[in-house]
Amino acid sequence: MTNEDQFQLATYKKMPIAAERGEGVWIYTSDGDKYLDLYGGHAVAGTGHCHPHVVNAINKQASELLFYSNLVYSSARARAAEKLVSIAPRPLTKTFFCNSGTEANENAMRMARMATGREKIITFSGGFHGRTADAISATFLGKYRELGKPNVPGHLEAEFGNVESVRALADDTVAAIMLEPIQSMAGVRMAQPEFYAALRTLCDERGIVLIYDEVQTGVGRTGEWFFAGSEAGGGVVPDVVTVAKSLGSGVPVGACLVTDAIASHIKENDLGTTFGGGMLAMAAVTATLEAIEQDGMLENVRCIEAYLRERLQEVEQVVAVHGLGFLLGIEFKENAAAIHKRLLERRIITGTSSDPKVLRLLPPLCLTEKHIDEFVLATDFHG
Ligand SMILES: Cc1ncc(COP(=O)(O)O)c(C=O)c1O
Fold first, then answer.
1. If both were cysteines, with which of 135, 231, 279, 353 could 76 make a disulfide (CB 3.0 to 4.6 Å apart)?
2. Which atom of ligand 1 is nearest to 217's Cα?
3. What does pTM read for this prediction?
4. Is residue 306's pLDDT more than 50?
5. What are 289-295's contacts with CB under 8 Å, separation 24+?
6. Pocket around ligand 1 at a 6 A CB cut-off
7. 3-class SS at 154?
8. If you measure from the C-alpha of residue 80 to the centroid of ligand 1, how many angstroms do you get, rounded to a whole number?
């Protein structure tokens, strides 16, 4: 037993490797092995592991000021907020910084209740929104909601992709409809553009706030900065977008992006968090977004996704490839857990999902064709 197992609660089924160092798409272990990371450190290493621009910015900020709360102004926070808003689709014009995905979703739901004076929230079967009380109550996926018992009241479940199931629930007691626009943990499930457009119309008609949980899809993962506003999403822009995961390249940070209309309902003291907007995280946010821009990572994602899809067509065991950009679910004929294990033995890290046939890829946005070739070869599909 390692010290970690001895002194830490065993809440995760771990891979049998100890990550010591990272560089781009590679993880180096304590045994001196090198792994191709197609899971991106749990969808966090969007810029790749230890991108030099991000590391330099964190180092510089760390030597100047690690932290001061929102009680003071900060140029690091101002830069991060401006940069984040600059890449968001209009009319999302203001941000609130927090520390994680679940916290971003809690605050998004709270803002929707404040803006509407209503309490209920509609979310979807298969969606995952986090593990704190309100977010886990909004999570209708497998056993997760059970873990949060007693759940927060007023959470309603609709069927993803079925607008009629939403319409039936969306009365004038509903504050928000919240969704993962691509349901990642459920097996990378995506709806038709018409579904997102119909949700937007429904929300407009009935005075409901539309929230996209872009904790996984945001910050360039789909080949666009956000799923919000994208062609795949019917050009729909919600009232609130939540992000976290890759936003700080590994420094914990989350954010809500909101419209002026939502912002107008939020007053002093309505929301808060000690660590949200801290300087170290803010330096990481700005540098992360700059690195994605400077290295042309959005174009890279689109280009390499096309290459991967093309290569996978040759592969007999692959039934379908779900998702968009670098949030991909590869559906196999056989159990994905076995493929995950086989790939790990061949020094490639991938992810599973709650669909036993779907292997999930959430690689750094700097992945290249060479890495795809390695992945396809390692699966040994060609015999
Ligand atoms: C879509 C989505 N929302 C929310 C969360 C919760 O984020 P965090 O673990 O940072 O609280 C996750 C985490 O996996 C997620 O995938």
1. 279
2. 1
3. 0.98
4. yes
5. 289/83, 289/84, 289/87, 289/219, 290/53, 290/83, 291/47, 291/51, 291/53, 291/54, 291/249, 292/46, 292/47, 292/219, 292/220, 292/365, 294/53, 295/47, 295/366
6. 100-102, 105, 128-130, 180, 184, 213, 215-216, 244
7. coil
8. 21
